[in-house]
Amino acid sequence: MRLMLDASADKIIQYEKESGLPILQLRTPLTAYAARLGIPFGVDNGAYSEFNEAKYLKLVAKCVNHENCLWINLPDVPYSARATTALFHEYCYISGLKITNRCYTVQDGITPDLIPWNYISAIFIGGSTEFKMGKTARVVARAARKRHKWVHVGRVNTPHRIDSWYNDADSFDGSGIAKYTVMRKAAFNCLKNAKNKPQEVF
Description:
Blueprint: E1 2-5, H1 9-19, E2 23-27, E3 41-43, H2 53-63, E4 69-73, H3 81-91, E5 102-106, E6 122-125, H4 129-132, H5 135-146, E7 150-153, H6 159-165, E8 171-172, H7 175-179, H8 181-193
Parallel strand pairs: 1-2, 1-8, 2-3, 3-4, 4-5, 5-6, 6-7, 7-8
């Protein structure tokens, strides 16, 4: 599992040197940090804080054909799987944009029939803390990996959450890790010691 940071490419390179770990970039409409050749990135939609469609579409237009782009998260509705699925299909074919590496956000209330597996290459584990750390989110993540979909987990700011998700996700992000040195160092240490941890059984 690799850390994704909403930070500039220069900062990511600095943190890689400090930690000795490979770090990915998370690009968001709010910060809109530029990409740099050689640093893979995912695109978040910013819906958890406040969705701005104009800024989102502007960022998507820059990323949709970028060779470093791993996935683009389509808009979602926090805490509602059914509303998220409806919104996902509204944005699935944005006029003038051909997004092939779509990411779907998994939210509270998810059921197998709501996941548009044939339309996505990645899932973003969102939702409430209870949902994110519960059985259903983990089952969905494992189902995604069996289908060779990328699994990203949002709001993972503590060593406990890193340990918990280490074997079931490809990447994670946390705003606290991006902002605060003490949290970032704790995350680096946790990742260095997290290899070969036993998978949680549900």
